[in-house]
Write a structure and sequence with these properties.
The protein is mainly alpha-helical. It is built from seven helices and five strands. The chain has helices at 22-28, 31-43, 48-55, 59-71, 105-131, 137-142, 154-174; strands spanning 17-18, 46-47, 75-77, 87-90, 94-95. The strands form two sheets. It has a three-stranded antiparallel β-sheet with strand order 2-4-3. Helix 1 packs parallel to helix 5, helix 2 (31-43) crosses helix 4 and helix 3 crosses helix 4. It is globular, with a radius of gyration of 20 Å. 12% of the residues are buried. Mean pLDDT is 89; it is low at 1-8 and 209-213.
């Protein structure tokens, strides 16, 4: 007997997302820009000066990266009482990058973006590990670092990753938006969930007709 997918909760909100075009993806595939975009999503609007201080960059470099993000619609100007500085905010909550199904430049861009994202994620994981011993016990219990290997076909693996993404998205829809006052209530902090799923390295040919299964 098949069980229908659970319906979203009545109070579930819509999570805004962007699927970048190739040129926009190329602009985003930069560790500093990814960090900036993440900061604006997590902490809310900020100025170039504030972001420069957090990133350890000069304001000129920060402003350049912000202009690149704005040009391709990842960020936008945020209304603010201060007229001396330009405030920026993230335009979306999620960036979705579908896997490239073709060769050539599209695949190269896919790899470049994932390399930049991986560099950022590894740094976050390392910092989280360094802070692990200082976490309250309830947050240590909520933290996970596991790897599980399952024999699967490509179709089964795709179905599994889709189910996992759906579960994570449902949790996001039920939560307040990052950077808003409601997301800063007592006991609530940004919780970082990473999903990496791939064929075990070395078990599939790199190109058709090459390598050993």
């Amino acid at each position: 007997m098949k069980h229908p997918h659970p319906k979203p909760a009545a109070d579930a909100r819509t999570v805004s997302r962007v699927v970048p075009e190739p040129t926009a993806l190329k602009a985003l595939a930069h560790p500093v820009r990814l960090r900036m975009l993440g900061m604006l999503r997590i902490d809310g609007p900020a100025t170039a000066t504030q972001l420069a201080a957090r990133l350890g960059l000069n304001s000129g470099a920060t402003s350049y990266h912000l202009r690149q993000l704005a040009q391709y619609g990842f960020i936008e100007e945020a209304p603010h009482a201060s007229r001396r500085d330009r405030w920026w905010r993230a335009s979306h909550e999620l960036t979705s990058v579908p896997a490239s199904e073709s060769e050539g430049e599209a695949l190269d861009l896919d790899i470049a973006f994932n390399q930049a994202a991986l560099s950022l994620q590894v740094g976050q994981m390392q910092q989280a590990l360094e802070e692990y011993a200082e976490l309250p016990p309830e947050w240590r219990k909520a933290t996970a670092a596991e790897d599980i290997i399952i024999p699967m076909t490509a179709a089964q693996a795709e179905a599994l990753t889709k189910r996992l993404r759906d579960v994570i998205l449902e949790a996001m829809q039920a939560a307040p938006r990052l950077g808003e006052a409601a997301s800063q209530e007592a006991g609530m902090v940004p919780f970082y969930v990473m999903l990496h799923a791939f064929p075990y390295p070395g078990r599939l040919p790199h190109r058709e007709g090459e390598g050993e299964p």
